[in-house]
Amino acid sequence: MPIRAVIIGTGSAISESNYGSSAAVITTNGLVLVDCPDSILRAMKDASKKSGVELDPMKITDILITHLHGDHVNGLETLGWKRWIARQSGNGIQPRIHAIESVASRIWERLAPAMDQNGTAQLCDYFSLNILVPGVAVSIAELQVEARSSEHLIPCCGFRISFDGATLGWSGDTRFDPSHIDWLSSSDVIVHETSESRVHTPIACLNALAPELRRKMRLIHMEDNFDQAVTDIVPLTEGEVLEVVGLDR
Ligand SMILES: [Zn+2]
């Protein structure tokens, strides 16, 4: 079976047109989110409508977090509250967040002013937290997930998400970093960010990669004025169902 991921958002940090870069990987028992951007509930509803795949926020079991910029995590508060409120009536399970230590250690610092219920609540009232150790693959739902730190303005990581012989590579936000792309290159599909900034990856850098890498690469985190004509790498679209099949299948 291929990995199936519904693309929820493809926009840059300051996009006026698109949701923040994110996806929902469909698993047997629910959904594994890759990042959780602003307006996550509406973003998931819109992606459901476009894809024809029902993305129920109550079915999220796990959330992989690349880093703490708002376009990747601003939805955690809304989702955390929604699921907490549901559990007060006995509905749903507590979602798990997975992040590298340098990201995980500051998640509550970011959420507490809105969620600590006058000092009586902690992160563990909303989410359980699993620390990802770079280079160590772990089972998340039926997926195998490995993280690698990337170079960004703040601590950040990319992921290799594997299932049944197929691997989806996800760059996270990163400056152009050939060693990060090298790590992602064993994936069957590489979702790579692009934006014209020194803390992101300008499209010209990706255009200079080998053709076999460009062919299996898909773009995310595009600025609103991104011109598709400047590259042969295909951008992802919101609501697209990305299917990743292993090469040996
Ligand atoms: Zn960022």
Describe the structure.
Helices cover 24% and strands 29% of the residues. With 249 residues, it is of the alpha/beta class. The protein has helices spanning 40-51, 70-73, 75-88, 101-104, 107-115, 178-184, 203-207, 211-215; strands at 3-9, 22-27, 30-34, 60-64, 96-100, 128-132, 138-140, 143-150, 156-163, 166-170, 189-193, 217-220, 234-235, 241-244. The strands form 2 sheets. It has a 7-stranded mixed sheet with strand order 6-5-4-3-2-1-14. Strands 7-8-9-10-11-12-13 form a 7-stranded mixed sheet. Helix 6 links the parallel strand 10 (166-170) and strand 11 (189-193). The chain is built from 8 helices and 14 strands. The structure holds zinc ion. The site of zinc ion has 5 residues, from loops.
Physical arrangement of strands within the biggest beta sheet: 6-5-4-3-2-1-14
Mean pLDDT: 97
In CATH, the topology is named Metallo-beta-lactamase, Chain A
Report the sheet with the most strands, covering strand number, pairing sense and barrel closure.
7 strands, mixed
Count every beta strand, where a strand is a DSSP E run of 2 or more residues.
14
Q: What number of structural domains do the residues give?
A: 1
* End-to-end gap: 9 Å
Q: Would you state the CATH class?
A: Alpha Beta
**Rg, please?**
17 Å
* Poorly predicted tracts of residues: none
The ordered H/E elements are EEEHEHHEHHEEEEEHEHHEEE
| Percent helix range | 10-25%
Which structural class fits the helix and strand makeup? alpha/beta
Q: List the ligand species.
A: zinc ion
Gross CATH architecture: 4-Layer Sandwich
